């Protein structure tokens, strides 16, 4: 007879898969039927997937070999890769049009990088979902907000590897900071977290994530922002 905790984790895993697949479909439908630009559809998907760290605390098995948060993330490296023009299976790529249509022009591996970063964080920090959140939320909420605000209101532009705006970067910093702070309030109800002590860590993560997003070319911000964000959080929080 299966252990009750294992059964509940399997049910939660299936629910996470359903949520991710629904997010892909919603983003793809929005792109195709509701006039979303490819960029906006992609950012919507980033936001929806970025909510997964809030589910991680409810998994009871989060260490090797039964690391269920890892099982949530890892399959989507393959799924997102198969949706790119580099897929070895063109038929399957066609069937994944919901993802294919919202991959980023010129660097179609952006979503693959996002899934890879998520997987790497889940591998090492499944028992510390607030660390995963510190890496993922700036990419999910900060970058998405920066893209929307920068596109609409960005007047003071600068260029390193890609064109950015000061308005977009300021939005990236502010939303990254706020999203991490909100997540820490949530996680503090489940874990013993010194919120006052973590304020400085959150500020530094928001700053580093903003710089990484501004300097990363060709979709590599999907790697640099989450991994640097989580690393900086650990460094400035004393490993909390």
Number of helices: 11
The neighbouring-strand order within the major sheet is 1-2
Oligomer: single chain
Query: How does the major sheet shape up?
Result: 2 strands, antiparallel
Radius of gyration: 18 Å
How far apart the termini lie comes to: 37 Å
Task: Explain what you see.
The strands form two sheets. Strands 1-2 form a two-stranded antiparallel sheet. With 240 residues, it is mainly alpha-helical. It has helices at 4-33, 38-49, 68-73, 75-82, 90-95, 97-100, 110-125, 129-153, 166-188, 195-215, 221-236; strands at 62-63, 66-67, 157-159, 163-165. It has one domain (4-236). The longest helix has 30 residues, at 4-33.
Précis, in short:
The chain is mainly alpha-helical and 240 residues long.
Outline the secondary-structure elements.
Layout: H1 4-33, H2 38-49, E1 62-63, E2 66-67, H3 68-73, H4 75-82, H5 90-95, H6 97-100, H7 110-125, H8 129-153, E3 157-159, E4 163-165, H9 166-188, H10 195-215, H11 221-236
Antiparallel strand pairs: 1-2, 3-4
What key attributes describe this structure?
240 residues, two-stranded antiparallel ribbon, 11 helices, 4% strand
């Amino acid at each position: 007879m299966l252990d009750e905790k294992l059964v509940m984790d399997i049910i939660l895993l299936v629910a996470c898969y359903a949520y991710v697949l629904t997010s892909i479909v919603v983003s793809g439908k929005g792109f195709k039927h509701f006039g979303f630009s490819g960029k906006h559809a992609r950012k919507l998907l980033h936001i929806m997937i970025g909510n997964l760290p809030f589910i991680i605390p409810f998994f009871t098995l989060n260490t090797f070999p039964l690391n269920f948060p890892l099982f949530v993330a890892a399959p989507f490296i393959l799924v997102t890769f198969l949706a790119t023009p580099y897929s070895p299976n063109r038929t399957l790529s066609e069937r994944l049009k919901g993802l294919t249509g919202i991959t980023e022009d010129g660097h179609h591996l952006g979503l693959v990088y996002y899934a890879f970063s998520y997987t790497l964080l889940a591998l090492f920090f499944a028992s510390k979902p607030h660390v995963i959140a510190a890496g993922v939320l700036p990419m999910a909420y900060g970058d998405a907000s920066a893209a929307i605000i920068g596109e609409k209101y960005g007047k003071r532009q600068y260029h390193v590897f890609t064109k950015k705006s000061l308005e977009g970067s300021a939005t990236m910093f502010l939303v990254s900071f706020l999203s991490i702070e909100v997540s820490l309030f949530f996680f503090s109800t489940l874990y013993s977290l010194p919120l006052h002590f973590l304020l400085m860590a959150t500020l530094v993560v928001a700053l580093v994530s903003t710089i990484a997003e501004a300097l990363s070319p060709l979709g590599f911000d999907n790697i640099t922002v989450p991994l640097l964000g989580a690393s900086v959080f650990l460094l400035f929080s004393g490993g909390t």
